[in-house]
Design brief:
This protein is of the alpha+beta class. It is built from 16 helices and 23 strands. Helix 5 packs antiparallel against helix 6. The model has no long low-confidence stretch (mean pLDDT about 95). The structure holds glycyl-adenosine-5'-phosphate. The site of glycyl-adenosine-5'-phosphate has 19 residues, from strand 10, strand 13, strand 16 and helix 12.
Length: about 475
């Protein structure tokens, strides 16, 4: 299936089966804003919980916080977002359509690749990165013109100069519509961590190196919002800032690069689908940075960023707040024989988009399988082979019929399991139809309760991916599922 069609199929499936809906759909929707339905909100929560556990439970030197979305406006002045959080944009004079310059050039490079002009695409992208790194907007415009990159709507090459547009949404606090009361919807969760650095360090008695993790909403007025939930205006981030002794940041950057890739691979996703992309153009705060990219149907794209942010943020907050952001390190420096003393820590950040990870899981698990029936005819099975620990429902309990005591047995199993993991209970429709519905929402196990169950306390358990069925004791069901979702 073509890449674009595959995304269209995923979008349609996500809507039909209650994963993702367009926001305010009855009013024709709101661009680049989405709502998560019954199974989508479960999957999203499971991804968030898996990340949270891997950070705050599996590392005894990482703690979590939950900071407010609204922050003092000076936060964003100090962080550089008021002055620097902008994207270079270019408008087509004939269609009045605005493009992010990098997206326009990348889309053209993708077209070159489709035409098997790999080298031309590579050199175009590397030229773009060089020009971006030098903030050379005239050069970028020339690159667009020289390559005859056209607007998809007007089909012309009639471009304005390149200008910067800030991506932050602003709003007013309270009733006064005064300039001074303008506050921003946070464009990243990271700053909530930085401004609480000393509160957390002191209250939780943390010693460097240590990390602070947070998940939560972030908002960006993306000009070009594309590819479903890949680029949204309201989205969720899962970020961790790891505070280290200056001079050790290179080593920690490498460690976190490896750790984060391991986290992705621990979900059983093929390593071929991932790659690192080292940044040439660094964000205003970064010393070193890379993306973990996943190969979506529409190409390798960023899912997570790992950034060596130096002491930039804490230093800036110290300067703007006039409050010291130093840590006293009592450990002995072998070189001097004295304690390291006071310093502003350096920071390694890991930042992953929850919605993007959700799209990754959907893309990686969506399959349309052609099955051959006994009579030789074929049938299509749509299945989401979501890793069991992330699946919205872990177990479907399906009494064959709503009579002869089968309901009671099913409900008893449900009671036994539901406090340990999420179950789905259903009595209606033919069993084959019910299996297919569970396949479509990614339920890894279905148990069927039939008349034999009454006789020998066994059930048929069906495995989603292999579709194999086996007969096991009903008393073994809970443990079998628990072992699979560990
Ligand atoms: N604190 C650093 C930071 O925010 P970023 O690379 O701008 O870095 C981190 O964002 C991650 O957040 C990205 O890798 C991506 O997964 C996610 N993200 C960023 N913008 C997004 C958007 N408009 N829609 C969905 N996810 C987004």
């Amino acid at each position: 299936m073509a890449a674009e069609n595959n995304l269209q199929a995923i979008i349609a499936h996500a809507k039909e089966y209650g994963f993702v809906f367009q926001s305010s759909e009855i009013y024709d929707g709101l661009a680049a804003v989405y709502d998560y339905g019954p199974w989508g909100s479960e999957l999203k929560k499971n991804i968030r919980d898996f990340w949270w556990k891997s950070m705050t439970q599996m590392n005894d030197n990482i703690v979590g916080i939950d900071a407010a979305i609204f922050m003092h406006p000076t936060t964003w002045k100090a962080s550089g977002h008021v002055d620097n959080f902008s994207d270079p944009m270019i408008d087509n004079k004939d269609s009045n359509k605005r493009y992010r310059v990098d997206h326009l050039i990348e889309a053209f490079a993708d077209k070159l690749k489709e035409e098997n002009k790999e080298d031309a695409a590579k050199s175009l992208l590397s030229e773009m990165e060089k020009l971006e790194a030098n903030v050379d907007y005239d050069g970028l415009k020339k690159l667009i013109i020289d390559n005859n990159i056209k607007c998809a709507i007007s089909g012309t090459c009639n471009w304005t100069d390149i200008r910067q547009f800030n991506l932050m949404f602003d709003t007013k606090l309270g009733s006064v519509t005064d300039e001074a009361d303008t506050i921003y919807l946070r464009p990243e969760t990271a700053q909530g961590i930085f401004v609480n650095f000393l509160n957390v360090q002191k209250s939780a008695r943390m010693k460097i190196p240590f990390g602070i993790a947070q998940t939560g909403k972030a908002f960006r007025n993306e000009i070009v919002a594309r590819q479903f939930i890949f680029r949204m205006r309201e989205f969720e981030q899962m970020e961790m800032q790891f505070f280290v002794r200056p001079g050790t940041e290179g080593e920690w950057y490498k460690i976190w690069k490896e750790e984060r890739l391991k986290w992705h691979l621990s979900l059983g996703i093929s390593a071929d689908k991932y790659r690192f992309h080292d940044h040439v153009k660094l964000a205003h705060y970064a010393k070193e940075a890379c993306d973990i990219e996943y190969e979506f149907g529409f190409g390798f794209k960023e899912v997570e960023g790992i950034h060596s942010r130096s002491d930039f943020d804490l230093k800036q907050h110290q300067e703007y707040s006039k409050k010291k952001q130093q840590y006293f390190d009592a450990d002995i420096d072998a070189a001097t024989g004295k304690p390291y003393g006071n310093y502003i820590p350096y920071v390694i950040e890991t930042s992953i988009g929850l919605d993007r990870m959700f799209l990754l899981i959907l893309s990686n698990s969506y399959q349309e399988q052609t099955l051959t029936k006994e009579d030789g005819s074929t049938d299509i099975r749509t299945v989401l082979n979501i890793p069991a620990k992330l699946a919205p429902n872990k177990l479907a309990i399906l009494p064959l019929m709503k009579k002869d005591g089968l309901t009671e047995i099913g409900k008893k199993l449900l009671e036994e399991c539901k406090s340990s993991f999420k179950c789905f209970y259903e009595e209606k429709d033919a069993i084959g139809k019910r299996y297919r519905r569970q396949d479509a929402i990614g339920t890894p196990f279905c148990v069927t309760i039939d008349f034999q169950t009454q006789e020998d306390n066994t059930v048929t358990i069906r495995h989603r991916d292999s579709m194999t069925q086996e007969r096991i004791a009903i008393s073994e069901v809970k443990n079998l599922v628990l072992n699979a979702i560990l």
